[in-house]
Amino acid sequence: MMTNRHRAFAAVRQHAGMDGAIPSPATTCERWGLCELAFDAPQAARTANPFLDVDLQAVFSDGATTLTMRGFFDGGSTWRLRFMPPVEGRWSWRTSSTAPELDGLRGTIMATPPADDNHGPVRVAHRHHFAHADGRRHVSVGTTCYGWTHQPLERQEQTLESLAAAPFNKLRMCVFPKWYEFHRDPPLHHAFLRGADGRLDWGRPDLAYFQLLDRRIAELARLGIEADLILFHPYDNHDAPAAERWGYDEMPAWAEDAYLRHLVARVAAYRNVWWSLANEWDIMKAKTPEDWARFARVLKAEDPYGHPVSIHNCGRMYDHADPAISHVSAQRIDTVRTSEDTVVLRERFAKPVVWDEVAYEGDVCHGWGNLTAEELVRRFWEGMVRGGYVGHGETYAHPQDILWWSRGGALHGQSPARIAFLRGLVETCPGPGIEPLPGDWDAPLGGCAGAWLLQYYGFNRPRWRWFRLPADGDYQIEVIDTWNMTRTPVPGVHRGNLRVELPGRSYMAILARRVAATGRPNASAPPRAAG
Amino acid sequence: MMTNRHRAFAAVRQHAGMDGAIPSPATTCERWGLCELAFDAPQAARTANPFLDVDLQAVFSDGATTLTMRGFFDGGSTWRLRFMPPVEGRWSWRTSSTAPELDGLRGTIMATPPADDNHGPVRVAHRHHFAHADGRRHVSVGTTCYGWTHQPLERQEQTLESLAAAPFNKLRMCVFPKWYEFHRDPPLHHAFLRGADGRLDWGRPDLAYFQLLDRRIAELARLGIEADLILFHPYDNHDAPAAERWGYDEMPAWAEDAYLRHLVARVAAYRNVWWSLANEWDIMKAKTPEDWARFARVLKAEDPYGHPVSIHNCGRMYDHADPAISHVSAQRIDTVRTSEDTVVLRERFAKPVVWDEVAYEGDVCHGWGNLTAEELVRRFWEGMVRGGYVGHGETYAHPQDILWWSRGGALHGQSPARIAFLRGLVETCPGPGIEPLPGDWDAPLGGCAGAWLLQYYGFNRPRWRWFRLPADGDYQIEVIDTWNMTRTPVPGVHRGNLRVELPGRSYMAILARRVAATGRPNASAPPRAAG
């Protein structure tokens, strides 16, 4: 079933090439594509609440692997079942349901080879890194548009255009609408319909919103962007009179679970989905530790693909040792020392460390949103050269409060170009990703020992550095200006202790790459990591 | 007795106006001036080692107060006794000595009112601050020229000229010569003579050096600069063959004590002396905790004036809770978070916090010496707005390795002008000094509650801030550009919550001063604090 609105985006989709992302009955589907089964069930649709009263699941099997996916009611008399084939070949499926019309249905799907730009879902790889299912490394460079799917459609389109031209490959976005400073107006759609009493009815998702969300996730996939879905957040309409409050942050437990089940059934088959249990979990006063554990259990039970799961702090970091959490999603706690703590967190949790908030480029009144581009880029480098990942956000004051970090729209800052430069450089590091290496007390060193060594000098501005190269190989050296985005080779090949001349400016780095017997650096192979 | 060398500096001294600083027999002396008694003792001078074999002390009394000062051998057949009258009036003195010629001598001194620019020695005041003995506040703004008294005389003169034009009122300087990167050449004088074996003879101070040191301390006093004398340091000639090593860092205990007694006898009567037990005590491998305690005991026994005593760390901070230590002399331990920790140290030790090293303005290869001027000035502001004090140093690469931080000479940087601006501003804070006040999570607030409020925004660049003023008074507001050194009043008087427009640049501050009934700020009185 393709609605008019779906059709409106078909061109974009085809262009971006995510085959199978447009929900339609399918009997063939590429590996890691989205395969959708749609069923018409008029009897079931007549139950009091088709969302809650009808249970539908399907088992998918290729003989070796069996997956169970929940189906979901999508309005009218339509139920959908979505499936992402994890391997190529013939998959048979069979439904079970409390609704006789939906029970015992069966069929087969042929999973074909993935398109060239389909690398499969992202997973934790080599403990501290990420890779797509096909082994391609994922150097996570995220950005943040918390409420973009709740903006007028024109701005949503503009956001996608901005993302298409930007270096980001992950987007932090709230499922529920947001009410917070610089973003105090009603959403385009709520996530639930209003009941007779005017309050949101947690039992009745607003399908107009969730269908839009589907499309946005698919469009992000086509842009190569992971959709880091924030499942709960504290930015509710606290300023409104009690009768007008939204209450997303205080839903009853049954409604939270029903929402999660619906969301997972709907979007888990999109290969680019990540789950973020919460933004700033520690200021969600109505939640208990057991609530977070329960949400993680629901995800584990409902998502057969094992998408990444994180939970993001405000002041107090979650215990990321929890095995339900795949990676550290950190907000800087200190105003000054931020991503410099990457190694501490890597060692403490033995998981990838993603600094999803190190404060944003901008000039609003708050310290979280008025960094210079230089300082944000510095925080990116400090984190990434230590083997972590860092996220972007932008908060320039705007006469209509159109701040990228909350509403999307246009990017105005100077950091994205530098972040693109950094991402490109990091992607040339051989192996699974940058590992922190024994460096100097005053400058972090990271890379792949013996092969690719990157040292960063931050706000310091040495006129020269002594760079310690292994004595048993030849290296090519480049002086990197991380702000002006230049790479200047030092003539010749080098080994042992080397004095490298620098311009005496801030934001410089040195890259040393081991030269193969051919006299060319070894590390020019395309970045690949075992999955 | 005035040597030729003394005469050579007499003009400078008179210009700077420290009466009594030129050693000469005196019967009148201004309060807190230096009064010197010189004695000729040919018999005593014939002992094997007049430094060690002759004990000389004098008791000074005005009837109410009694002080004991040690005398010292100063070459030829001359012994000197120096005295700083702590109060005006008639002081009688009487010597005791193991040398009959020096025993039982007596006389009187009339202590006259101090000159206008003589405010007496600096002491800890109001727990976290400093003040001169006459109550005048001392807003400590130091700099660092570790080895300046070991440089050629011309450079020493240049250093004094540079200091005369700079905002600094404390100078960190090593008594012993220094051998360290960028400073590897023999000193003008060693602190001891060489013995027959060519090694330094710890029993025989080189008086040419100590007499020069006298003059330098006096000249600093005339410039209004405290001489923060570093008594021991680890920067010895470790690169030299063992036979040529200096060994200042491994002196035998008897020699350490004799050196300290000589030094204190010689310079404690200069009102501008501070004692720093060590630079980077924690990397002086030959020293034990008991050594540091012993040095502090010697100072306590020998210095009747109670000059400030500190001990400066490299990586590990000394336990400044030790009652022998008057104030915290801190080196930043972290490369990023430095003087932001002022409040932590204030509360932990209940003493003034002086960040004597937060890294230096410069561009050498090491992270301790290649800050931008902007970053050093930021560290000054971060520390001082929190009620601490911060010190300067400069390390620009120089073809002859003439780095201010080690050799003095000329200042090349951009921070001193901004530090002068800051010092001038802080000196207008009423009360004993800036106290940290409850501010915002992202910007420290300090000052005098209800009267003078200073908030600093560091590298952040808000376009506006909400500034919380008390509701029960009127305030004048200034927007301060700490880098461009401008103060821009916000028109009108204000109370309660106020939106203050800012330029969206880094390094801004807001100052709010309570307005008296006259409509003019109260805080314009000259800065004074009870002693």
Put the structure in a nutshell.
With 531 residues, chain A is an alpha/beta fold. Chain A has eleven helices and 30 strands. Chain A folds into three domains: 4-112, Sandwich (Immunoglobulin-like), CATH 2.60.40; 122-426, Alpha-Beta Barrel (TIM Barrel); 436-524, Sandwich (Immunoglobulin-like).
Characterize the structure shown.
- 2 copies of one chain form a homodimer.
- By secondary structure, chain A is an alpha/beta fold.
- Chain A folds into 3 domains: 4-112, Immunoglobulins (Immunoglobulin-like); 122-426, Glycosidases (TIM Barrel, Alpha-Beta Barrel), CATH 3.20.20.80; 436-524, Immunoglobulin-like (Sandwich), CATH 2.60.40.
- In chain A, 21% of the residues lie in helices and 28% in strands.
- In chain A, the strands form 8 sheets. In chain A, strands 17-16-15-12-11-21-19-18 form an 8-stranded parallel β-sheet.
- The radius of gyration of chain A is 24 Å and the shape is globular.
- Residues 1-26 and 523-531 of chain A have low confidence and may be disordered.
- Chains A and B meet through strand 26 of A and strand 26 of B.
